[in-house]
Amino acid sequence: MDNVADLLASRLTEELVRALRAVGTAAEAASVAPFLVGGSVRGALVDDQGTFDLDIALVGADDATFARIAELTGGRLSRRSQFGTAKLQLDSLEIDLAMARAEDYPKPGSLPVVRSGTLEEDLSRRDFSVNAMAVSLCSETWGDLVDLHEGLADLKQGRLRVLQENSFRDDPTRIVRAARYASRLDLSPTAGTLESLLQSVGFLDSVSPARIRNELDRVFLERDPSGAMNLLSDWNVLWSIHPCLEFHADPWDGFATEAGALPPQARTSLGYAILACGITEADVNGLIARLIPRASERRSIEDSATLGRMSATELVSFSNSSLARVLDPLAESAVLGVGMAKGGKLGCRISQYVRSHRGLRPYLTGDSLIEMGVPRGPSVGSILKRLRNAWLDGEISTASEEWALAKELAVEVAES
Question: What is the pTM of this model?
Answer without folding.
Answer: 0.90
